[in-house]
């Protein structure tokens, strides 16, 4: 007869239960390998670069406080603007002022090309002289467009032209295509290629030199990057 388990306080609790076996289950690796580590490193580098560039831009702005260079068409003379059998003859001269309001930033205008448009069709391109503009300086540009150009006007554009012919005021766009560099102290930036848009309402001069309509008023131009 098997030996009975010892009684505790006179009570019997049954046969002894062997302790549960402790099975160690190997854990899976929480890492994602070399590729994951490389991705984390790359993200850290990108974030660091963004922070550094942001701080550099902020410091530059706090030191130099750059202001936008202003372009104005101060005068425009239209001596001829006639359409005959889809050939447009034109004679337009514009005076443009360029104001650099910055105290510490100069501008190299390495390339300036002036273009005249009518109803989104280019009439002529004119290269202008490159120059350097110093601090808090106003420079002057003059562009002359003269010649004839084939234009294809639809019914709406032709109607617009007839209305302008009656009023004596024509909607002509002059655009400046620039290649510029900024100079800060002895440092020069890389080249930028902005465009300056001048949407003009130009009165036609009559044969004796008087205006057929109200005189031209100064027009501020817009930057287009």
TrEMBL record:
<keyword id="KW-1133">Transmembrane helix</keyword>
<keyword id="KW-0472">Membrane</keyword>
<dbReference type="GO" id="GO:0009506">
    <property type="term" value="C:plasmodesma"/>
</dbReference>
<dbReference type="InterPro" id="IPR004864">
    <property type="entry name" value="LEA_2"/>
</dbReference>
<dbReference type="InterPro" id="IPR044839">
    <property type="entry name" value="NDR1-like"/>
</dbReference>
<dbReference type="GO" id="GO:0098542">
    <property type="term" value="P:defense response to other organism"/>
</dbReference>
<keyword id="KW-0812">Transmembrane</keyword>
<feature type="domain" description="Late embryogenesis abundant protein LEA-2 subgroup">
    <location>
        <begin position="96"/>
        <end position="188"/>
    </location>
</feature>
<protein>
    <submittedName>
        <fullName>Protein YLS9</fullName>
    </submittedName>
</protein>
<feature type="transmembrane region" description="Helical">
    <location>
        <begin position="45"/>
        <end position="64"/>
    </location>
</feature>
<dbReference type="GO" id="GO:0005886">
    <property type="term" value="C:plasma membrane"/>
</dbReference>
<dbReference type="Pfam" id="PF03168">
    <property type="entry name" value="LEA_2"/>
</dbReference>
């Amino acid at each position: 007869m098997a030996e009975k388990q010892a009684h505790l306080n006179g009570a019997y609790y049954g046969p002894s239960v062997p302790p549960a076996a402790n099975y160690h289950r190997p854990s899976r690796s929480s890492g994602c390998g070399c590729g994951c580590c490389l991705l984390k490193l790359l993200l850290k580098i990108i974030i660091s670069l963004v922070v550094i560039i942001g701080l550099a831009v902020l410091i530059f702005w706090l030191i130099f406080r750059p202001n936008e260079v202003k372009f104005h068409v101060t005068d425009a003379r239209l001596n001829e603007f006639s359409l005959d059998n889809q050939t447009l003859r034109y004679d337009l001269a514009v005076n443009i002022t360029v104001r650099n309001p910055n105290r510490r930033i100069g501008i190299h205008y390495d390339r300036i090309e002036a273009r005249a448009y009518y109803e989104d069709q280019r009439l002529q391109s004119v290269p202008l002289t490159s120059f350097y503009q110093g601090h808090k300086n106003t420079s002057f540009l003059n562009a002359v467009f003269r010649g004839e150009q084939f234009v294809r006007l639809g019914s709406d554009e032709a109607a617009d032209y007839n209305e302008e012919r009656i009023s004596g005021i024509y909607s002509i766009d002059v655009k400046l295509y620039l290649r510029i560099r900024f100079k800060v102290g002895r440092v020069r930036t890389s080249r930028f290629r902005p465009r300056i848009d001048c949407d003009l309402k130009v009165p036609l001069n009559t044969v004796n030199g008087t205006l057929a309509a109200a005189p031209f008023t100064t027009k501020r131009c817009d930057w287009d990057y």
